[in-house]
Structures are given as structure tokens and as C-alpha cells.
Queue: 3 jobs
Job 1
Amino acid sequence: MMETKHPADVDLLAYVDDELPGARRSELADHLATCEACTETIDRLHAGRDALRAAPLMKLPPTMRERVSMTLDRFGPERASPVRRTYVSPLRLVTVLASVAVALVLVVTIADLAGDGGGEREAGGDATAQAERGRPGEAGGASPSETGAAAESAEDEAAAAGATRALADVGRVAGPPRAVVAALRRRGLDADAEGPRLVVVRGASEADVRAALTGRPAGRVRVAVEP
Amino acid sequence: MPERDPDEALVRRAQRGDRLAFERLVDRHQHRLYTLAARVLGSPNDAADAVQEALLRAWLRLDRFRGEARFSTWLYRICVNAAHDVRDRRRETAGLDATENEHPDVRDPFAERELSGDLQRALEALEEPYRSAVVLADVLGCSYAEIAEIMEVAEGTVKSRVFRARIELARRLGTREGGDASNR
């Protein structure tokens, strides 16, 4: 029985994908034997599909894979679970050790300058603990030189002023602030730039803010939530 | 679900906060996510950003995954959305004054900025819903039902998109059967 009209696109697709039931498949094969236009369509469907199938899977470069783990460390939720384990990659280990070393050097230097040997051990303990914690309150990206007390600079008056307003730090991301604000507002958050290095979000949870900023590289713009 | 999700056990552990289990899921899916994002975006660096964003979103929202779909399907949906967000952000930041944009480029400086090759050019000539649909179908081997879940459209719409995308790809690559495998 010859078909008098062309099969539907969806049938041609199913034919190429080998998903047509037997009877329908033979019917369509009969049609193709006499229809040049449909045969050409079938050839194109095969060609388009095969070109993609022949393309190899692309490998995520190891540096990028490493970055994923570091991002998860930085922004990941604080899941209070007994089975929580932290994935410590070699690169991260080196970063943490470098931070600890810099913190210790700073502490020793400060203690030497102050001539107070008694305070050295205690201050060193704090700095080391802080470095090991990876400063979870800050969205990472802090260079080792920012890890110690020297990082408490007054470069950003607005940020310092913000600290007196009971703001909860979410992290530090790349700016400019208006781009950060735009990203947050796109997610429906009430955000404003308050100075060259501070963005304040009102009435949002830290988790929402983190989610809205995922993928934005670490930087110098402080993002904080005002309850 | 017709088949058991091979990721089920790891997902359950990760949902209880087991970060190592999630890292294993990342290892398992990283290259497919990267391929998806790279084929959709045409840029290895942007693709890496999208993958990072997708995996972070997945980790943060893992408790919302109910196992109604396969984990990979859920992950691909997040990845496609993340890729679109990255693309939108690139367009937005492209308009910013370069001196104001202090984004430090932490991405791989040795990665190609753009994917090259006839296949990628042909893909990029497709409008977006067609591109994602055909990449999911013919690069990642997703079923039409899965793609319908990922793209949140009817299965018939997916078939129509894949049909048009394959025809258009073949036209751009030349219609010889077997296709043109050059892609880089």
C-alpha cells in the first residue's frame, strides 16, 4: 500500500532513531523507496545526528575541576552532619599551608616588634586557627597576605561603617559593586551598593545571597546581609 | 522510573552532608557537564564557569532533589540554566566600561577562548533551544523524555527541535552522510 502523502516529521525522526514499530517502519520504508524528498530528509537527519555523535566528549581541565572543589569549600552549606567530610585537594592543602605560614610570619614579626614574647603563642594560635578555618565568613579569594591582622585595613570606610551595623558578611566577590547589585537584583534581592567596596542586601538569607552570587569570582567587594 | 538511578546511593549520602560523596558525583559527571556547556556556549572558559556554577547550585539545592528524575537529568537542567546565565552575564558585562570591570580572570589562561571547527560553527548558528536540545540528544545521548524534563517543555516540542536542529546542522556541514567530525 503506497502512501499518498509524506510522513510527519516526527515519524521521519523516529525512523532515523530506530524507534518506529515494525509495521509503521515498513510502511515508511515503502514510501522512502519512491520519495526523493523524504529520502533526502532522512539522509540529513542521519548526517546531523552522526556529526554530533562523532564529536568526542570534552574533558574538564584539572585546574577547573580543582576550582569546583575550592568553590564548594568556599560557598558550600554548613551541613551539620556527622558524616560530613571535607575533600582536601593537594592544591588546597598548599594554599592553606601557605596561609598558615604567612600568618605565623606576621605574628612572629608583630610579636618581635612589640617585644612581647608572652603574647606570641596565643596570637599565633588564633591566626593559625583562622587560616585553617579558611575564613568561612568571607567568600574566599583572600590572598595569604590578607589572612592576618594586616588585612584589617581601613581602605574601605563604607565597609568599616557597615561593620557597626550588625551586617552579616556573606563574602567578597569581584566587582564593580553595581554589577554585583545587578546580579543580586536579578534574583529578586533587595541590594544596594554602599560605597566603593560594599554591597548590602536586605531581608534575605545568606544562603539566597550565596546562591545568587555563584560563579562570580572572588574579589574585593564585600557583600553583607542586613537582617 | 524505568531504571534504577546509578547515582542514587551517592546522592543519598551527599544529601546527608557527605561532601566526599558529592565530589564523587562531580567526578562522575564533570566531563559530560563540561561538554554540554561548551557546546552550548562555544567557549571553554565560559563552559568551565557554567559547570562550576551548576555544581555549586546542585550542592546548595541537593535537598530539593527528590529522585523523581535521574540525578543526571536534574544536573543537566541546572547546567543548561547556568550556561544561559553565564551567557547573559557575558553580554551584560561586555557593555561595562573596561576600566570599571575589575573581574580578576581566574580561569585557565591556556584554554582556547572559543571552540573552533565546522561543527561548533554550525551549532552556534542554531538558535538556542535547538542547540541545547540537539546537544542533549546527540552528544549526551539523553532520551526525548529526559530532554523534555531538562528543558521543561513537551516531548513533542523536543522532537521538533531535534528534527530541525539536525536538518540545519547537516545543511551547514554539507549533507554528506556520516557528517563532519571535525570539531576542534
Job 2
Amino acid sequence: MYKYVNKPVEKIDGLALVTGEEKYTDDFIYKDMLHVAILHSGYAHAKIEEIDDTEALKMPGVVEVLSYKNINRILYTTAGQGYPEPSPYDTCLFNDVMRFVGDNILAVAAETKEIAEKALSKIKVKFTVLEPLLNFEDAETSEVIIHNGDNSHAMIPVYYDPSQNLAAKVEASVGDFEGAYMDSPKKLDCTFYTSYASHCAIEPHAAVTFLDRRGRLIICSTTQVPFHVRRIVSAVCEIPIAKIRVIKPRIGGGFGGKQEVLLEPVAALVTWRTKRPAKLTYSRKEVFRSTRTRHQYRTTFKAGYSEDGSINALHLDALENSGAYGSHALTVLSNAGSKTLPLLNKIQNLKFTGKGVYTNLPTGGAYRGYGATEAYFGLGQIIDMICEETKTDIIEFYKKWTIKPGETSPIFQALGEGKAGVAMTIGSSSLEECISLGLKESGWYEKRKLYGKDSPLNQGRFRRGIGMSVMMQGSAIPEIDMASAYMKMNDDGSFNLLVGATDLGTGSDTVLSQIASEVLDTPVEQIIVNSSDTDHTPFDTGAYASSTTYLSGQAVKKCAEEIKRQILKTGAAMLHLGEESVEVKNSSVTSKDGLSGVSFEEICRYSFYEKDQFQIQATASHVSPKSPPPFAAHFAEIEVDTLTGIIKVLNYAAAVDCGVPINTTLAEGQAEGAIVNGLAYAIFEDFYFSEKGKLLNDTFGKYGFMTASDIPPIKVILVKSFEETGPFGAKSISEININGALPSLANAFYNATGKRLLRAPFTPEKVLWALEN
Amino acid sequence: MKIPFNINSRIKELEVKPNETLLSALRNNGYTEVKCGCSEGECGACLVLMDEKPVNSCQVLAMSVRDKKVKTVKGIGTLYLPHQIQKAFVKAGADQCGFCSPGMIIASYSILKETENKPTKEDITRGLDGNLCRCTGYVKILEAVENAAKTSLTEETKAPEAVCTNM
């Protein structure tokens, strides 16, 4: 049916990547470049009384020291979101209050990196150490107020009360939860905890800045959001947007961690003041300590249900540890409800309450899954609990209770991103087929019969179990995020495609050229993509919220369709035929009777040089009226060593509905990467802090990281559906598959041992604790 | 100071500082295809071959390369003359962000060389154990190495003149 989409097209930058030719931010080296190093706070909560930088400034090679003493303290949010941001303005580039271990004290710019780092040790800072708030469950009642009288404020009319350490608060309700819960014959009340996590993109955060020949500031950075970087740097550094150009070269992974504007304003200020190129690259330790993380969560589920397994009432209460600043605090919290509760839209009485609280711990941010991962841990388990309790087949439960095409959930409208959400009817879903194929692949029913805590197989040291869970996510933020594309035709029949969309390594440059190719029936090699340069490409909100293929892809499709109209018109004129008698076929315009035709090359030459000359070109923008969810069913088979507490994953199967996958290889790759990230998060990824709030496991080695020898056999099955509002039927796939490992493994653990894992990650200590309690 | 060394089969001089790591010296001298992910020998992004042995260049002093043969990913194959391993990575979709790829390619090359192109699954996973990747979940990387092994290991690829230099 399709020629260029729904195919395993190789990445257009693939060979350049694997031969080391592609350039990443830190690979840009300029003569006369200054190197920037940042001094980070060693205290979780402290007030700076004095900074003495005399000795540092005396060092040969030290050029500039930036601190609150010599910059304007402008409040902003580091969250790279659309304007006005739903995250509170509570951060300054450099401030005199330190709010977590790793907060910015000051920056030194020097001739070499070594001098800059040495200069940091010559700086004397006098602190008044303040009592830190290190337990997020104490935040609301604590006497320690983290943003006290610093003018922190919300940019949009949302609940925000820093005097109570509240960075965000969200409530939504459907039906009458309290009444229905009271009336339910069976009740469940269960609390779950998920941990901090680092994104661990292998490329550390970096920014390189310089002035061009006309004195404009060029920022090259590891960003998922070049246009937001331009806007935010302009505001924070007080440089007009017209004077700033942001370029994203190749970037070494993002996963949400680079949806933050952290390093760019520092390097930008150094360059703006000194008129010299500057580079700031974080060490791995700095990435762990000072950038953003996955928020720590406590989720409490209350469910009222009947003997037959029908759920009458469900309440999800979420407590989010926002850390020192409120980056993405509100939106991650909202998504904990909006990306989970609509899945079970048959439940008549639903309630979501959530709070995001400040602490003196590392700041949360966007992380693949964005709240959904945290909430599915509990939701996936309480479904299993209810099914076990009422002897309901969990497969039949999900088939019956999940949202279907043509159906809606009032939650879509009730929970938005800082404002009311958008009502939406599900247009596409192959979830039932996903569940069927997944259970077949995993051998579900055979293994469920074989395993179980009473199985004779499961009486010894090693016990096996199988568990499953079902999930959804979204595709882009409806009626908020916009993507655009520009295309022009060249005189050999090739096309330049300019998009603001940001390829993080996901392959979106390739995916977007496939979409243009499909519309124009011309090979992918004929589409020359240039992306993510604020001077040369049109606006795009950036790579987040599972939006690029769905949203930017639709902008490219619209743009290519306009190009096609112009080509058809020109071709028809050349053939002396009416437009209705011609069609685009194989890089040419041919008469429908097949008797005559002109190639794209001839058409462009004609339009350039022969008659009624004009440039065949078009631009298109796209805002989505909805955020169609992708769906997935995940099945995990595990073996528990009851002596050591080690969980080994034996098999993992995921059946995924991402609509029509534009690039089948890349779509599988997105799913596999998310699954392994999810498995590592479920089994060992966590942050360990000292009593004073210092992150202790701030290296890959101490943090733990799955390697090639740790991964189980993983089977990803893409199950097509057709989403009318997406390009060639596509929906998103990047985030959803990180949500399955936590609940599926926990359910498999119950199947193996009869015990529940309520706290993640499932380290040997927690496993042994669960087995004994 | 400048020390002579052999990189990707060419004799060049490396400008090094005392106590500088090979990773830092290589990158400062323009060999930016060698990536820095952690500087602590834990991620494998900076893997190079020293006299055909894979080493994390962040764990080696630059001075130690005097009279040694160093090979980066560009010494395995280039954009214009890619090695079969590199082609296999692209075909399998083992190349997402590409930041770990230079190290992964070096590790894969060593696995194939040591096993004379007949690696077991365990040879591959053990050989890649020091290389971290967050994008792919390793599934397609393992597939790529297996596929590359199926085509016979060709003679050492001669790299053409480097075309891409720093801006």
C-alpha cells in the first residue's frame, strides 16, 4: 500500500554516525575558545553570605567569574516548555540561596578547562548553612520553606503556593468517588513508591557559544528544544531574540533530560560579555547531580469494587517530589492521571488528586514516560490485585474495561497541561489484538497454569512467575504544541525539507523525509533534510511529549501536499492537460492515460527558467486537535532467587499499537530502548543520598546500568491501527514502552511468590523484605 | 609537547600535556570521533584500539601512545569506505543517537577479530559488556554484530583521506 512509509528505511545519518563523522556539541572546537566550569553547592540548603573570587581572578588565564553578584537575577523556569510555561518561575541562573547539593554557585571562564577548574578551588564562599528538607513526605508540614520570599510565581492561573512548599497541585473528579467507594462491597487501599532516576543519555550536556561576523550570538547545544532555548536565553541573558541563533547538531540521546535550559544561558553570558567563543560541558557527575531527574513519587490507590471484579470507584492520589525547583512539576503530575485513568474509562467514579512538593533534593524534570511510568506502577498492580482477589481473568478484565475506538473518557477534558484538557474520542486502537498477540508470544495461559505460588515448581529457592500490564500514553500536547515545515524544489527534482523538529537520535529526520517521499512519490534520497536551526528552519516546539512523528510529521505531510499541488499544476501546463488528467508518479507528473509525462527535474527547470517562472515552495504548520494514545500490552516472565533476592527476567514481550509505524526498524528500536530503560528502572536504578542530601551514586558504575549481557530476550510486536489524524495513520511510540516493566515485573513477582512489591526499584534488599513481610 | 604516533595507519604528531589522558589529547587534536561519556572508564564511548587491543582512552595516558598504533572508529571504516560492521549497524537500526557507536564499533571489531568471525552469543554480549547504550536496549546492536559476523571479516580497511574536519 505504501512505498516509502511503513518500511525499514535506514537512517539517513546512519553511516555518518557509525563512522564518527557526525558532530556533537562538544566536538565543536574554536580557536580562542574560553572554557567554562561551574562551582556547585555542597550544601543542600544554605545562604551565601560572601563570595571572594580575588585569588581566582588573579590567576593567569582566568577571564570571567559569573555569580549573583554581577548578573541580573531574573526568575525563570529551566523547563523547555511552550510560553507561558506551566512550570513556576522559581530559578535564577546564579542565586545566593543554595537549594540542593549541586545547585549553581558561580561560573568561571578561563583560557583552558584545567585553569577554569583550578580557579574554582581558589574561590572562597562563606555560607550560612540552613536546615535542609530531605523527605518529600514531610514537605507540607515542614518548617523549612524552600522558596521563601524569593518572588517565585506561576506564569499561568494555577494553584501555586511556595509558602507551603507546594510547587503544584492538581485535582480532577468524575462522578462521585466517595459515595461509590463507600457503597462498594470490596475495598482496596494501597500505596506505592517509585524512585529518582537519571536519564543517562551517554552524551553529557554541553553548550558552545560564539558570536558570528555580525555580532549575533550562536548557541550550539545538546537540546531537545532549540526554539525554547532561544526564547529563554533571550529572557535570562537580556539579549534580543533577533540576536540569537540556536543550532542543535547531532545529540547523544535526550529522554527528556535535555528538555531543560541549564547550560546555554551560562555559556551565552560568557560569550556575550567577553565577545569570545565559550564551551561548557558537564562531567558525568555533574549530569547526575546538577541536571534534571525523574521525579520521586508516592501513589496511593483506593478502589471500591464488586465480587465480580467490577471497579465502581477509583482514586489516585499522587505525591511528587519536585526537588529544589518546580521544573515540569505540574505537568508531570497531571500526566500521572491523564495518561493512566482514561485507559479504564468504564469506571464511573474517578478521582485524581496530586501535589508536587519542594525539597532540598535534586530537581525533577521531563523523563520518558512523564508521570505515567510512576502511576502505572501502582495501577497495573491494583488491577492484578483485584483480579486475583475476585478470581477474574486479568486478560478478560483488560479486554472489557479498557477504552475502545469511538469511546471517550471525561478525564481527557478534566486534566490538561496547566489548563483544562481537550475532550477526545479514541479514533484508533488495536489494543485487543495487542493483548491477544502478547499472550500468545509469552505463552501466558500455559505459564500461568505452570507457575503460581502454590505450584510444585515454586517451592524451592528459585521461583518463577509471569505477569502482565496494559498501558497507554499520548501523541503530542493537543491545542498547545505546534510544528511547522518548509519545502522547496531544486532543479534536479530534489527537495529541501526544513523542519524545526529535533532529532535526538530517534531518527526523526529520516521519518520526516519518508513522509515527504510518500506524498511526492520520490525516493528518500531526494529529500534533503535540514533540522533544528532557529535561523534556517521554521518553528517547532521540540522533541517532547511523544510528538515528533505525529505532530511534525503531519506538518511535513501538509507541506508536501501543497508542493504536490504546485507540481501537478506546473506539470499539467507543460503537458497541455487539465490538472484533473494528471497524477504524480515515480518522481514525475504523468497523464492518467499513461501516454505523456514530465519528470520532476523538467518541471523544476521549467518553473525556474521557461514560463511564468516561480519557485515551487510551501510551508505548513500543524496543531493537533487531539493526542491519540498509543497502546501496549507487556508480558514479563521472571525468576526470583529467594536466597539472594535477585530477580532475573527470563522473557519480555511487548505488543504495541503506534498506529502505522512510519519506520518499522526505528519504531521497534524505540520500543526496545524504552523497555530496557524500564527494566533497569524497575530492578535497580535509584538515587542514594547521604544524610545531608548529597547524591552518593553519581557515576555509571555506582548508579548501575544495564549492559548487553544483562538483557533478557525481548520481543516487540508492532500491531497496526490507523489513526486518521496522524501522518499516514501514525501515532507515537517513544515513551509508552517505559511504563510496562514496573507493573509487569511486580505482578510476575506476585505470581511467583504470592507477595507484592510496593516499593521500586526491586533491589535484593527490597525483594527479601517483601518476601519476609 | 609533541609526540609521534601512528593513528589510523598514518604517522602524525600528537600535541599532549603531561598527565593528559589519551581521550583528552585525541579530542583536542581533532580526533573528535572518540567520544567522552564519563571519563571514568565506565561507558566505553572512548574505546580505541592500541596495537589492536581495545582500551578506554580515558584510562590511558596520552604519553603512552609513543610508537604505538592507535585506531579510532575511522580506522575501522569511513563514510566512503565503511566496514561491514558499520554497514550492519545501520542496516539493523543499531544506530540511534550514535554517541556510543564509535566505541561499540571498536568493541564489535575486536569481538569478530578475536573469534575469527565466529562469535557465540556469549562472546558478543561479553565483548560489548563495557559499552553502554541507552537508546537501543542493545537488541539491534546484538543483531548487527551477529549479522556482521556472518559476512566474512574482510582485510583491514584502508581509510581514505579524512574529509570531515572541525569547523
Job 3
Amino acid sequence: MMKTTLQKIYMGLIFLFLYAPIATLMVLSFNASKTRAKWGGFTLKWYQALFRNSDILNALRNTLLIALVSSIAATVIGTAACISIMSLKKKSRTIIIGITNIPMLNAEIVTGISLMLLFLSLGLRFGLGTILLSHITFCIPYVILSVMPRMQHLSPYTYEAALDLGAGPVSGFFKVVFPDILPGVLSGFLMSFTMSLDDFIITHFTKGAGIDTLSTKIYTEVKKGIKPEMYALSTLIFVTVLILLILVNKAPGKEKGGVSK
Amino acid sequence: MKKLSVLLTALTLTAASGLALTGCGSSSAGENGEVIVYNWGEYIDPDTITMFEEETGIKVIYDEYETNEIMYPKVEAGAASYDVVCPSDYMIQKMIENDLLSELNFDNMPNARDNIGKQYYEQSREFDPENKYAVPYCFGTVGILYNKTMVEEPVDSWSILWDEKYAGNILMQDSVRDAFMVALKLDGYSMNTLDPAQLEEAKNTLIEQKPLVQAYVIDQVRDKMIGGEAALGVIYSGEALYTKAENEDLEYVIPKEGTNVWIDSWVILKDAPNKENAEAFIDFMCRADVALKNFEYITYSTPNMAARDLIEDDALKNSPVAFPDLSNYSNLETFHYLGSDGDELYNNLWKEVKSN
Amino acid sequence: MKKKLLGLPYYLWCLIFILAPLCMVFYYGLTDKNGIFTFQNVSAISSPEHLKALLLALVLSLIATFICLLLSYPLSMILCGMKKGQNSLMVFIFILPMWMNFLLRTLAWQTLLEKTGVINNILSFLHLPELVIINTPYAIVLGMVYNFLPFMVLPIYNSLAKIDENVIQAARDLGANSIQVFLHITLPLSTPGIISGITMVFVPALTTFVISKLLGGSKILLIGNVIEEEFTQASNWHLGSGLSIVLMLFILINMALSALFDKEGEGSFL
């Protein structure tokens, strides 16, 4: 009993710690005064201003577009890579997995800078394309590291059996192998989407003129004082994701849900 | 598993609708091409950009930077192909020496030629000796912004920023040249010095001050002073007008040891892809009504005499903060470019200050 | 044969976007402005300011990693002990803050910690002394812990969740008490998760520059700040790359340690 109360208090404290800043941002989004220090009264004007602010909306659009495209691309490339890696000899496999780990383990600043140097030496013009290339680069490892464990646990015989029973290699894959690795694929996709959405450092080094994601936009605004429309936007995003989560959890489904295995 | 796929579908749908809502494909080039502008953050009235686009049909791609030192590598690397940039005095000198700028054709820019005060072109000769490359956009001074209710004595010297009474209540600029300017002026030297002994002394002065400094910031000085977070801050004169309007307890003063008088100017890059549009843009910004609009929005002093004539509020028109009579002060200097070795020297010393 | 081809896009990608950029960093790091081979960009780490920045970053990130570990382990255990339906919701609740932009979350801490910020307003209302940690290393550690906590919680939670109930039951049946079960069974079996968590927290914490800029008032120079400024302000890419090479050394050490303690690659973030 004592244990459970203690546990609850502990969880509660951590919860408070995690959500205090978020609550602050939400409160500020309704603050009539522009500066963070004073409370000027309740207002919805920042929400209205948000929808009229084309800069922020553009940044939002870019962020979503980049996240969607890079995670889809990363998932496709990564899953295909996993299939291939499974058929490699142990030595080659270890090398490839080692290389795969590099973007994840390397400091973001080093990854960002190295990509910037690469693009410069290739003479590429910085813009949406370079950002996409960079994002896909750091997303693929998440996909591979999600899918590989699933693939390793599969029995190779089910696939062979399907082929023996007359399935072609492609349909055999999609009917037999794919469903089993699907949780890993989806996890990888979700992780890629999340990491891309929130990325700042790598985007900072590889973006071009006029293209901003939410993160880089916020960074430029940090110096001058964040526009309250940003608070409104983050509150909206947060509430959207929260609602999604609640809906998903209310939806009937198998007990083993969730992102983690 | 099922929940996961439901979550992902919901997510993708939401993302897709978010995309639809914010409207795809907004960036098609204007009928008369485009111009790519790289300017300081919050240094233009966005309405003027819209006005320009509507009147000329040229689309403006607008990017922002926080300091000259951040702008320079991007321009030098050439990866982003900007047309128009708005650097500060010494940076313009550096860009001229590194052959990054293209000469301006003032015949194509009548407003620039006629509306900007002659004295500013005179001053520009310090970094643009033949007035070939730059059109002044904003000018000003650097001084101390202080909160009357938190500072009892009269403020007239940089030395108050070293007063232990105000420990933890002092804001300094997070920029190597600006920080050293304050220390060098206080120590009685030129802010363009390359004398190692003088610089070493200035460095030690800064290190001495560090425990008293609340933070090294750039434009956050504004918000922090308005919010009463600090008693004293080093600030650019343009911000001073804005902060005084937001918080009546704030006052701006130019210290007696002298300070930096600066000019930010429009320049066109040598390999700018849209030179004609760039000239049209700069000239538009020099139009009296446009310059007035920008002045009212960003509150930085404008060198545009025609715009100044249009200011209605007499107090503003003759404000000593906005349009100081510089002959009242001595020891005013403009920054010079110190050469890459000089820059390296300053940078290394600044690192020593920061890491102390 | 066909299977191997499927991997071709990725292998090419590895070559162009992972290996080549690394080579570029090495190239810039080992040459000077005139293209001559030199070791001075790397040995520059030994200059007092750089060494100080590195040591400070090391100390702060180690402290932050340790705090994350201390906080996450009990949390993960509690999460594992919860009922099946509840616990996935709980896990989501802990990942949810990651969806709020990283910069904004860190900035929000600035609002909370400022002298006239929210926390101090509450404290003064309760007549308690002021909390002054903004613009000090404490604030930076707090920022690190806040931002990287989920990265420690998830791997540990995953590891703990994989432990078979039966093993614990068996230990109990054989007479072990709770503490013995924890020390001899739970802890060792969760090592992969701990190692993974440490890696995912230590490296970003060591190399951060945003957190020290926003919460340290730009007064505290960490190695990440030094490298970032070399690239964005001082235009000295050679020095920046040289210092980055030193950073990569740390990451390599980390990878080696991981491989040592987690041979089967069981500990995973996912």
C-alpha cells in the first residue's frame, strides 16, 4: 500500500517535471501581453494571428512535408536494406550495422556539419532538397534498428514454404514476411517522423534561403523575442497529438499496443 | 499492433490535412522574377515587402540572420545565392576586400541617390571609400539602457557596468566586437585597435566583469529590460526607442567615453542572380513613404531625410535618441574590418573571456 | 542475389551520405587554410579554453546522464509493474512532451526559471527564498535532464519488459528475497537497456550547444558551443572540424563500451 502511494507520488512528481514547461507555454499562448514576464489578461488573439501569419504557416507546412517525405523514404529504403542485410555474411553484416549506427550515435552537430561540407563540395544549392537528404540520412538508422530485430526472429522456413507452395518472391514477401515485421516497420516510421519533426541542429546547417522549419523559425525568433503565435501553434500541435493518443487508446484493439515492443 | 497502425493512420491523415490547410505550392515565382534578400531579424516591416511584390510583380524570398559573423560564411560559401544583403559597416569593408560585392548603379536607384542624407554617405566612406557599394539603411549608436527605478545614480559612463552593486543585473552583448568595444572604450583605447597589449587589457577587463554579468545576449536585452529582469544593458539605439515605449522606467544614454556609431547598408552581391530586381528592391526601400513605414515599425533611426520630413510627431522627429546630434559627443568611432588575422585575434580573446 | 540488390540503395546512401561526409570532416580537420596536412586543429583541444569547454561539457553531461539514470530506473520499474492496458498509455504520456518542439520546451524553462519567472513568482507568493539557477551550470544540467529523460526511460523500460516473469518467480521459489531478485536478476538482465539509455543521453548532452545558449545565458562555453561558433561565426572550418574529430573519439569509446556490455545488441531504444 505504502509502496503504491509512494509510486504514485513519484510518478506524479516526474509528470509535473515533464509537463511544467508545456503548461507554461499553453498558458502563455493565452497571455494578452507580448512579453513572457507579465500576465496581461486572457485573449485568443494569438490564435487568430497565427492563421494569418504566413511565415509560421509556411514553416509548419515545410516541417510536416519534410517529416512525412523523409520518414516514408527512410522506411522504404530501410526495410529493403534489412532484407538485404539478412542475407549477408556475419562480417559484412556487422560492418553495415556499425555504419548504420554512426548517424544515431554521432553528435548531431557533427552530422549536420559533415553533411553541409558534403553538399558544398558537391556544389549543391541549399534548399528543401538538401534538408530532405539530411533528414532521410538520420531517419534510416531508426528504421533499420526497428526492423532488424523482427527480421532476426523470423523463421526463414516460412518464406521458403510459401515459395514452395507456389507464391512468387514478391507476393510471398508481402504475404508472409511483411505482416510479421510490420510492427517494426511502423515503429521505425513513427520514430523517423518524430525525429524529423523535432530536428533543429541538422536542419540549421543544411537549409537554404527562405526555407524554414518550425525549429529554425523559433531559433531565429529566440533572439528577438518569440512571437506569441508560436505558443499558440505549439499548444495546438500538442492538443492535437494528445487527442489522437486518447482516441487511439480508447479504440478497441489487442492488449499489446503502444510504440514499444 | 492494431493501435499502432491506427495511430499512424491518424497521424498521417492529420499531417496531410495540416499540409492541405497551410496550402501547398505557394511559392511560384512572381511574373517579373524574384529577388532573394538576406537581412537582420525583425529589421523590416513585412508590409513593405508585400507592397513591393504587388507594385513590381517581383517575388521576394526573405531570409534572416542574427549577426554579421553568422551572415558572412553563408554568403562567402555561396550556397544560398542571395541578391541583397544588409551588413554593418565593418562587414561591408570585409566583403569589399574579399571581392564579394558588386558596384551599384545609382542611375537605376534615384531614391537611394536623392533621399538618403549626404552626411551618411560621407560617413560611409570609412568603409566604402568611393560610395560604390552601399546604400545606408539604418544607423545608430550603442549605449546603456537602464531602469530608472533600479539604478539610483546618474548613468554617464561604461564603468557603471562594472559596479558590483549591480551584480547579476547587467546584460552585455553576445558579440565579440560589441563586447570589446565597451571594454576598449572604458580602458581608453580605440575600438579598432590591433595592439596586443591593449587587447589583453581589455580582455582582462571583460573577465573581471564576467561574474557580474547576468547573461550575454543579443536582442533578448529588449525583452529582459522591459520585463525588469535586469537593471542595466548594452543596447542598440534602435531598440531603445521601442523599449522606452513599452516601459517608461527605461532610459538610454551614450557614455562619455564614447561609443560605436554604426550604419547598416544595403549591398548587392557580386554573383547575385537577380541584379536588376535587387536594385529595384533597394530603391523601393529608399522611397520616402516606405522608409517612414520601416522606421515606424522597427524604430531604428533612418538616414532617409525625405522620410524624416514626413514624421508627424515632433518629439520623435527631434528625439536625441533617434537622431542624436553627434557633435555633442567625442570619441565616437565606426568599426573597421581588422583583417582575418585581426578577427582571429579578437575571436581567440573572446573565447578566453567566455570560457573563464 | 536479388535480396542483396534490395539493399543497394541503402549501401549507396551509406557511402555518399554517411561515409563521405565523415571523410570531409576528417579532411578539413587535418588540413589548414592552405590545404597542408597538419595536426594542429586536433591538438587545439589542448588549449586552455578548449580543454575547459570540453571538461565542463563532460562533467555536466555525466551528471545529467547519472541523474537521468537515477530517475528513469524506478520509473521504468513502476511502469512495468502496471497493468497491461494502463502502461502503454503511460508510456505515451512520457513520450508526448517530445512532440512539443525541443527549442520551445527549453525556452519554457527559461520562463520558469527566470528571476521574475513563474517559479520565483510562486516562491515569493509563499514567502520562500528565490531560486537563482538560470544562467548557471545547474540550469544547463536541468535542461539536459529534461530533454533527454525519455531517451533513458524507453530503453530501460523495454529491457525490463522483456524479462520473463517466470525467471523472477523461479528465483522467488528458490528462496530469494526482493533485494536479491533485484540485484541478481533484474539489474543484470536490464543492463542492455541501461547501456543503450546511457548512450542515447550522454552523447547529445556532451555535444549540445542550444541548451547552454538558452539556459546558460551564453556565459558558459561548452565544447558544442565552441564548435558551432567556429563554423557559424569565426568561419574557421578547419578548427571546427578538428575539434569535431576529438568529439567523435568520445563517441567511439561509447560505442566500444556498448559493444562490450551488450554483445547481442539486445538493448534497443525501440
